[in-house]
Amino acid sequence: xxxxxxxxxxxxxxxxxxxxxxxxxxxxxxxxxxxxxxxxxxxxxxxxxxxxxxxxxxxxxxxxxxxxxxxxxxxxxxxxxxxxxxxxxxxxxxxxxxxxxxxxxxxxxxxxxxxxxxxxxxxxxxxxxxxxxxxxxxxxxxxxxxxxxxxxxxxxxxxxxxxxxxxxxxxxxxxxxxxxxxxxxxxxxxxxxxxxxxxxxxxxxxxxxxxxxxxxxxxxxxxxxxxxxxxxxxxxxxxxxxxxxxxxxxxxxxxxxxxxxxxxxxxxxxxxxxxxxxxxxxxxxxxxxxxxxxxxxxxxxxxxxxxxxxxxxxxxxxxxxxxxxxxxxxxxxxxxxxxxxxxxxxxxxxxxxxxxxxxxxxxxxxxxxxxxxxxxxxxxxxx
Amino acid sequence: xxxxxxxxxxxxxxxxxxxxxxxxxxxxxxxxxxxxxxxxxxxxxxxxxxxxxxxxxxxxxxxxxxxxxxxxxxxxxxxxxxxxxxxxxxxxxxxxxxxxxxxxxxxxxxxxxxxxxxxxxxxxxxxxxxxxxxxxxxxxxxxxxxxxxxxxxxxxxxxxxxxxxxxxxxxxxxxxxxxxxxxxxxxxxxxxxxxxxxxxxxxxxxxxxxxxxxxxxxxxxxxxxxxxxxxxxxxxxxxxxxxxxxxxxxxxxxxxxxxxxxxxxxxxxxxxxxxxxxxxxxxxxxxxxxxxxxxxxxxxxxxxxxxxxxxxxxxxxxxxxxxxxxxxxxxxxxxxxxxxxxxxxxxxxxxxxxxxxxxxxxxxxxxxxxxxxxxxxxxxxxx
Lengths: 383, 383
Known about the structure:
The structure is a homodimer. By secondary structure, chain A is an alpha/beta fold. Helix content of chain A is 45%, strand content 16%.
């Protein structure tokens, strides 16, 4: 039985992961759970899975959880520091990082430093600190197990294959809710328009990233760090049905694709059981019912975030970190309706251009950069 | 440098294989070539590749080849016996069997018995004698390397994977030229209607098999022998664009697919370079240009050959062999316009029902069965 800690257990990835663990009968012992604010669900999960410890970011929620679990011999850690302490534990086999945003970066680094394998859903970790994580992995021997459906697909297509024979990675993306919307009306987009994603049920931040297609840009950067493939050899193809989750083209122009129903439980389970395909508790893909798969090039005018991400990846160093933080803060401001939809790429572009670029940032550099970019985005005039 | 013999070098597979070998600079030394009747092309190939020996089935063509090559130190073998003698050579590393029809069976068995790996395009070998070939492989240690695009796709999807975790094989087929033709007009089909295949450039016999979809039925049987998957776990999906060449569904309902442009050089090269993906001399697949992939269930009323093949596979023993010989002879009679298109499945069904079934046929049993089924089909009344 493997010990697992789950960061963000009350979010979409965390809930799906616990579902997967239920179906893997006794393969995993849940040692740690963590939540931001959702104390009620965390208490329910803690009573069911009996972890050694839980972490709660929000102070009020932490008090609630502590009082509810006082008879359960579960240590309750509080705040950001509590979370980071739990992420540093080296007595677990695997840590699932289901956190959203750049706050997921430091827990990933802690787990990697502790020699723990990280099932990584938090794409910002590698976008912010790919270089650092790569170095720490080499020291500790820890592995990053991709949880994103796209990277899981690439990983599956590469099983038994040799990276020297890979020509190209083809990342698919649904194109989000605005793939066919009149581009002249993009400045009228409000959060409610963006929050209904056609295929995947995701959190608010990721849904906006999908609407701007920055999600795909971040995945291009993540692909670089997970598989060592350069920007020029990573292509984005819009595939609105989200059935093909990504592809690998080899030197003989043979293309392997991984497909499935759009259900995060498939890549989550694969990350936990790799290299095994354990039995599913969900339906099979029926391509005849799907009927048709379509493919188109992403429209770069509509989705300038894609180009920004490619440029950042080509410049490397702090450029992808500032791209990520600026995006995250701009998305939060858009969600509060303080800025417009097309202000998101505009702000990111400015932040990238104006920050002090460092080629090989330390973790301290990244934290300083995060503070700078956050201030920069919030100084942008309210509409 | 590996020594290769190529049976059927003047046919579609053979010509493509020599093209692939040209592009694999000096990886292969062509030791043997063979042709049925096309002496002119065989002489041209022999002068270019300088094999030790060639075989020619047709007597007149053999005389021509012998006279053209008399100064070239190339031994010319003649007739069926000459071919079988060359197929028994154990001083080659790999034999590509590009023969069409059940005449390809015995050369495959000879090569397997000689301990030579067989790059197998001749699907009839396994359909006729899967059981025998499996036993001989175990004794000699020889391997069957699939060349059919569908089986190459399955093989590629299985690289690094565990057969115990495979749920289903999904064989794709274009549906042939009559996928959408009014079924009430099927009795008016003549060879000229069938000989224009939408995607692949193939020989006449295979093109008719594609029109009846018996091609797909034979591939289901071949899949059984190549990968050990039972009929119930092999599904046919019609995919008119022929871009996805087949798929494997694993127990976690993750599906891997292999795709490419419809060019036989890809699977031929993969069989020769396995497990490597050597650089291509052909174009990459551009899914955006393709635009759309569609999927439908095969229409069993339109294509009764599919059901006949599944039933034969379930009964095993001589049943798949009689299916194959009856099909082959019926196709030849259809090509001579002696019988109608829908007579093909009708004759096969009768032959399957009336033959003396044997559970574990010997090679002698198979030869006798071949003679019986040939006589049976030719006794069918001319229309």
